[in-house]
């Protein structure tokens, strides 16, 4: 693969953006798990925890990438990624205060690694999809994005809060990739191409656009419904 070609650089940028966008809470877990360590061991705990989490994430992503190479599983993977994208734009707030602080280095590293593995399922599926089966892509993308995730989580969170459109852009990107994944499944190709390469190419453009549109439309609907329900509860509470 040509490392300077658009076929490599564009998916790589997608992987880096997705990893940064979906990993904001992971840095919070790292900080909370290490907050009770002695000052001289906090940096070591953060570094070891992040390194362990990256290794586990790469192993997990490798397995998922190999599974996505099996025919018909791309449809399931694309559907899962579509749900991940909708959940992202829905912007549900989750409390991370249950993460325990540890006074031992091993305990902090273990907590960071396990929490990152559990929290990163969305991330791994999305990155595996964006890599399109190329292990080099997601390994390089993850390694490049880790310093941003660990060192710049507060900056990233601030940018997202200041520019909420970044969340919608990220969700639309995931929807686009999910459409690409579903369209690339052999079953879908067989049903849509009909022996015509041109028709298959047309479908390959429609599916990503449709995926992105679904994410934005469903996300808008859920956000408005959530706002309406919250306003209704506030009105009911005020009338009591």
TrEMBL record:
Q: Which UniProt keywords are given for this protein, alphabetically ordered? A: Membrane, Transmembrane, Transmembrane helix
Regions that span the bilayer: 15-34, 46-65, 135-156, 163-184, 204-223
Looking at the keywords, is Membrane present? yes
Q: Where's it mainly located?
A: membrane
Q: How does it sit in the membrane?
A: Multi-pass membrane protein
* Compartments, record wording: Membrane
* Record's keyword annotation contains Zinc: no
Q: Name one cellular component (GO) term.
A: membrane
Q: Which family does it belong to?
A: Belongs to the TerC family.
Cite the PANTHER family for this sequence. MEMBRANE BOUND PREDICTED REDOX MODULATOR, SLL1022 PROTEIN
Protein name (database record): YjbE family putative metal transport protein
């Amino acid at each position: 693969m040509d490392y300077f070609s658009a076929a490599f650089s564009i998916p790589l940028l997608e992987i880096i953006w997705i990893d940064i966008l979906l990993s904001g809470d992971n840095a919070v877990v790292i900080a909370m798990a290490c907050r009770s360590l002695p000052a001289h061991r906090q940096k070591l705990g953060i570094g070891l925890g992040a390194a362990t989490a990256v290794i586990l994430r790469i192993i997990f992503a490798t397995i998922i990438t190999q599974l996505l190479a099996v025919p018909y599983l791309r449809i399931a993977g694309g559907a899962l990624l579509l749900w991940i994208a909708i959940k992202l734009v829905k912007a549900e707030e989750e409390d991370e205060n249950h993460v325990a602080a540890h006074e031992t280095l091993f305990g902090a590293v273990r907590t960071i690694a396990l929490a990152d593995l559990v929290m990163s399922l969305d991330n791994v599926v999305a990155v595996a999809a964006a890599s399109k089966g190329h292990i080099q892509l997601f390994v390089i993308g993850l390694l490049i994005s880790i310093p941003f995730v660990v060192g710049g989580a507060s900056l990233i969170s601030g940018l997202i809060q200041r520019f909420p459109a970044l969340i919608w852009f990220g969700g639309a990107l995931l929807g686009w990739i999910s459409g690409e994944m579903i369209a690339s499944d052999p079953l879908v190709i067989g049903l849509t191409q009909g022996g015509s390469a041109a028709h298959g190419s047309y479908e390959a453009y429609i599916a990503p656009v449709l995926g992105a549109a679904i994410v934005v439309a469903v996300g808008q609907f859920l956000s408005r419904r959530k706002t309406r329900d919250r306003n209704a509860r506030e009105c009911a509470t005020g009338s009591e």
